[in-house]
Design goal:
This protein has 279 residues and is mainly alpha-helical. The chain is 49% helix and 1% strand. A hairpin with a 2-residue loop joins strand 1 and strand 2. Helix 2 crosses helix 11 and helix 4 packs across helix 10. The longest helix has 19 residues. It is globular.
Length: 279
């Protein structure tokens, strides 16, 4: 039997939600005057263009905060699934390669259904709080408009995810933050607004968590680690899944990742790539 993408996301969530540190969860803040926030959210949803391969037998590296290399590998193996989306978003907005990928590594381990571990109201590949998401044009579940922590909203999200049985297609009907393209497009626009205010990418990244000391430095370290340990992540995956088959294909890291990249067309990636680039 195969396992659809939403089940993989649910498994990752259950494995990781309890361990994310508060440093990863600080919500983005929005200043009163923005420009890129006014750019419309891309008109993409979910269409089953590509058959979901299903990866019921896949084993990924565990989250390992006490083992730096293994922890990096675990982040890469999950985040790599969305790299073609992250790069398309970076290309559209002229953001240096790898910044958005690194933010995702830091925020959610690459799980689009990942709420903040403390249930404070954030959701998505990048943890947008409700008020910030609304400011950047995203439709969200519930009626919260807070830009800071909102535990009531967090509990509502938890109930909604359970009601949807962690089915990403169901969740997308309720909250745009779970849509990989809409989520990353929004953080790209947020970063561009930050760059307009700060004048450099380090300052722009720090605006995601202005009160989090060293946040930007952590993101750039993930960016470098993603390059340094990418081959190690592949070797680790292939060793863990040696001899396994999926739909008649040998379960290799290359097959696993490229299958996700292909399935990302279901979220509208092809149409997104046709959008006009924004300076």
């Amino acid at each position: 039997m195969t396992e659809p993408i939403e089940k993989i996301a649910r498994r990752d969530f259950l494995a990781l939600a309890g361990g994310l540190s508060a440093a990863l969860l600080s919500p983005p803040e929005v200043e009163a005057r923005t420009t890129y926030a006014k750019i419309p959210v891309p008109d993409v949803g979910y269409k089953p263009i590509v058959k979901d391969q299903g990866f019921s037998s896949v084993e990924l590296a565990p989250k390992s905060p006490n083992n730096y290399q293994l922890d990096v590998i675990s982040r890469i193996q999950r985040t790599e699934r969305w790299r073609n989306i992250a790069e398309a978003v970076e290309d559209r907005f002229g953001i240096p390669r790898g910044i958005i990928y690194a933010v995702v590594m830091n925020e959610s381990y690459g799980d689009p259904l990942q709420p903040n571990a403390t249930n404070d109201g954030g959701l998505g590949l990048v943890h947008f709080q409700p008020g910030t998401a609304i400011a950047y044009g995203l439709d969200i579940f519930g009626n919260s408009k807070r830009r800071g922590r909102d535990h009531r909203h967090g509990r509502q999200l938890a109930d909604m995810l359970k009601e949807c049985k962690y089915d990403i297609k169901c969740v997308l009907e309720e909250d745009d933050r779970a849509h990989p393209i809409k989520n990353l497009d929004a953080i790209a626009r947020y970063l561009k607004d930050g760059f307009s205010r700060k004048g450099n990418w380090e300052g722009a990244v720090q605006t995601i968590n202005p009160k989090g000391r060293g946040y930007a430095g952590r993101i750039f370290r993930w960016q470098n680690a993603a390059i340094k340990f990418r081959e190690a992540a592949e070797r680790d995956f292939n060793e863990r899944n040696r001899g396994k088959m999926v739909n008649g294909h040998k379960l290799t890291y290359d097959f696993y990742i490229k299958s996700f990249w292909d399935m990302n067309r279901n979220f509208g990636l092809g149409d997104y790539k046709k959008l006009k680039r924004v300076a």
